[in-house]
Design a protein that fits this description.
Elements: E1 7-8, E2 19-20, H1 22-32, E3 36-39, E4 42-49, E5 58-59, E6 63-67, E7 70-81, E8 84-93, H2 97-100, E9 103-111, E10 114-120, E11 123-124, H3 129-134, E12 139-142, H4 143-150, E13 157-167
Parallel strand pairs: 3-6, 8-11
Antiparallel strand pairs: 1-2, 4-13, 5-7, 6-7, 7-8, 8-12, 9-10, 9-13
Domain SIAH-type: 1-34
Pfam families: Sina_TRAF (PF03145), Sina_ZnF (PF21361)
Keywords: Metal-binding, Zinc, Zinc-finger
Length: 171
């Protein structure tokens, strides 16, 4: 439980045994996993899947944001919640839990006159992506709503997720 222990690689697509400090992991994610790297505190991402009815468990490419001098990981995946297929987006802070509490984020998805919004505090990468996902601590979208937001004939997933990260003011 030492707060100075190395961090585990936050990449969710496969079990990666790499550990290290945050600068080392950022380089590892960029060079070895080829993740998307972005600067800025707002984002607008599209997630597309040609046959969403075949998606039972899927993880899209991790995106890393550099914002306020810190790094954040945006996750998006599909999984079964009981018998219901769902999609989930959430943000993790690349640092410890105490530092993560200094930040908040929002995620939004919508179309056709409807909108869903999630707002919360990012979890630390000390919590595995599976732990965050299994606690449903993020924007959870049922497949029927995801297809509604995708428009068209409901045969293709085309979600646009927008979000922003901000620093909490200390009182």
């Amino acid at each position: 439980m030492c707060s100075f222990r190395p961090y585990s690689c936050p990449y969710a697509g496969s079990e990666c045994s790499v550990t290290g400090d945050i600068p080392y992991l950022v380089n590892h994610l960029r060079d070895d996993h080829k993740v998307d790297m972005h600067s800025g505190c707002t984002f607008n991402h599209r997630y597309v899947k040609s046959n969403p009815r075949e998606v039972e468990n899927a993880t899209w490419m991790l995106t890393v944001f550099h914002c306020f001098g810190q790094y954040f990981c945006l996750h998006f995946e599909a999984f079964q919640l009981g018998m219901a297929p769902v999609y989930m987006a959430f943000l993790r802070f690349m640092g410890d839990e105490n530092e993560a509490r200094n930040y908040s984020y929002s995620l939004e998805v919508g179309a056709n006159g409807r909108k869903m919004v999630w707002e919360g505090t990012p979890r630390s990468v000390r919590d595995s992506h599976r732990k965050v996902r299994d606690s449903h601590d993020g924007l959870l979208i049922q497949r029927n709503m995801a297809l509604f937001f995708s428009g068209g004939d409901r045969k293709e997933l085309k979600l646009r997720i927008t979000g922003r990260i901000w620093k909490e003011t200390q009182t």
